[in-house]
Target: Probable DNA 3'-5' helicase RecG
Amino acid sequence: MTADPSDLDTPLKKLVGEKTAKALAGHLDLHTAGDLIYHFPRRYDERGEHTDIRALDVGEQVTVLAQVQRTAVRPMRQRRGNLLEVTVGDGSGGSLTLTFFGNQAWRERELRPGRWGLFAGKVTEFRGRRQLNGPEYVLLGEQTDTEAAASEQIEEFAGALIPVYPAAAAVPTWVIARCVRVVLDTVAPPEDPLPATVRASRNLVGLGTALREIHRPSSREELYRARRRLKWDEAFAVQVTLVRRKRDAAASPARPRPGRAGGLLDAFDARLPYELTAGQRDVGVEIAADLATGHPMHRLLQGEVGSGKTVVALRAMLQVVDAGGQAALLAPTEVLAAQHHRGMLDLLGPLAQAGELGAAEHATRVELVTGSLGAAARRRALAEVASGTAGIVLGTHALLYEGVDFADLGLVVVDEQHRFGVEQRDALRAKAEQPPHVLVMTATPIPRTVAMTVYGDLEISTLSQMPRGRSPIASHVVPAAEKPAFLDRAWRRLREEVAAGHQAYVVCPRIGDDTSGADEEPPEVDDNGRRPPLAVTEVAPLLAEGPLHGLRIGVLHGRLPADEKDTVMRSFAAGQLDVLVATTVVEVGVDVPNATMMVVLDADRFGVSQLHQLRGRVGRGSAPGLCLLVTEAAEGTGARERLDAVASTTDGFKLAELDLEQRREGDVLGATQSGRRSHLRLLSLLRDADLIRDARAEAIALVEEDPDLARHPALAASVAALVDADRAEYLEKG
Model:
C-alpha cells in the first residue's frame, strides 16, 4: 500500500482496501485520505471511566464504553433457539441490555463479567429497559481466540484515551480508528498553511502534530493543544473569507438612495399611529446612512418576534422610493406575503394609492406577486412592477421567476432569511442593473459569536426593545403522559380564554392524511416504539367532537390552496373563528392581537428556535399571552429539558445559545444549506468566542497586508478547502 506521502487526495481504496473504502464512502461519505484525517473523534473515553448510560436517548446510534456485569441465556418464545442477554454497566448505576438472537454460546464465553468493551448500536426500549439489539462490539484488554484475528482493532486503543468517532452501524468506531492509523502511518502531513508569525504569536502547534494528536492523543494536554490548533484553522479560514468579501463589497458600486425631505417617508412618519421605539429610530438612522452611500448596503436586522422589524424595513423601502427606485420584499410563505401586503396598505393608506381618487401627493403603489395570482391580476401586477408604478413589491419565491422585471430595483428585503436557499435570494438580487442594497431580517436571535462567524461580512443591527402595549407571555410544559389531567385542564383553560372573548392556536407537527412531517419537513420514520407525530387533519375533528365541542374551529396548513389559506386567516383575524388548528405555517408573521393562547402538541418534535417563534404569535395585544407545551417526553430526558428551558425564559438570545449547543455547528455554518461537505468540525461558536475574535483580528491584519493571499499560497489553498466555492458563495449571499 503505497501513496504519494504528501498527498491527502489519495483515494482510500489505495490505503485501506476496496471493501473498507467502499463502506467508508457509502456510509460516512469519506473518500480520500484527507476526508478521513479530518473525520475527527466525537469524544474520548478513558479506561476505567464510564459512559453515562442514563443520558442515552431512545433511537440514538451510540458507542458506549461499559463493563460486562452479567449474562443470561433463555429460550426464545416465538421460535427455536436461545436468546443471550448481556447486561453492561457504566459504574454509576446505569445499565444497558445487549440482546443476541440465536445459539451463540461463543459470545457467552467471550462476554465474561468484568470485561470492558466498546459496544455500538441503536438504543431501543423494551418493557422500560434500554437495550441494544445485536450490537457490534470490541473488547479491550486480554484477547480471546475469537479476538486474535482482530488484534489490530485492539491496538487502536492501546493508549489511555480511546477515540470514539462519528460512526455508522456498518462502520463502527474501531474500524475507523484502524483506518486512521493506516493513513497516519502512510501519508505525510500536508504543508502547514498558517503563517509562522501567526503560529508563534498565538502559541499554536504545527498542523502535522495537531492531526496526529487529535486521533492518537498522548495526553489530555496534547489533545487540548491539537484541538485548539485545528479550531484556529477553521475560524481563521472563515474569517479570512469574510474579511476579503467585506473588503470587496465596500469597493463595488451601487446607486445611492439618499433620503428626501418632504417625501413619502416624511409623510409616512407623520401619519404613523404610534411612536417608534428608540431602537427603531437608531436602526433607521443606520439604514438610511447605508442607503445613501455608493456601495451596496448588506445589513442584517435581527429582533425578537414583534419588535417592529417590518416598520423599520418599510421606512427603508420608502426612502428608496423617494430616491426614484423600487423595493422588493421576499417572504417565505403566501400567508406571510399577504399579511405584509395588508399591513402595509393599512399603514400607508392614501400613500399607497397612486393613480386613485384621494391618493396622497407623493403616493406610490404596493403590489403583491404570488404563485396563486390569476392570469389577469398577474399581468396587471407585473406591468406595474415593470413600469416602476409599483414602488413597493411584496411576494414569495414567485418574485424570482422569469418575467418578473423591475424598472429600477434599489433595495431587496429578505424576511426570515433562514427559510430561503442561497440561490433564491441571489436570483432576486440579479434582477437589478447594479447591485441593490440588501436588508436581511430575522426574528431568530443570533448569539454574538454566531453573527461574527456567519455574518461577519454584514453590518448587524439589533432591535431589543418591544413596542409599547405588548403583553408578557407565560409558558408552561404540560406532561401529558405523566399527568393526563393536566392536558384536560389545558383544554378547559383554552375554553376560558374563548369565553373571555379571545382566540387560540393549536399547533401540530404534521399535516396528516398520510403525508410527511410539518409543511416542509420529510417524514419522521419512527421504529423506536414512538407513535407518529400528531397531525392537524386528525386532531381538528377530535377536538371539535371532544374537549372543544361547540367552538368555531378552523384548519390551516401548507397544502391548502392559497385562496383557502387566505380565507381562513382572514376569518381568524376578523374573530369569526375561535381556534385555529395549524402546522408551523403560523410560525412567522401571523399577527392576530386577539389571539392570547397557544397549545403546541408534541412540542418535543419542534426545535428551540421554532418554539420561540411559534410562541411569539400570542401576547401581541393588550391581554397577556399563554403558551402550553404539551409533551409525552419523560422528565430528565434531553427533550424534556429543552422544553423546560423554553418555558423558563422569553429571552430569545439565551434560547438561541441553547439551540446552538444542541445542534451541529456545521448546520449553523451553512453546511446543510449549501449541501456540501464542510471540514468545519471542531469550532464551537459559543465556547470559542475568544478564539474567533483573535482569528478575526489576525485575518484583518493579513488581508490588509496581502488582500489576494499572493504571498501565502498554502493558506489560500487551505482556505479554499475549508471554505469551498459553494460555502464562500453562501457566506457572501447570506
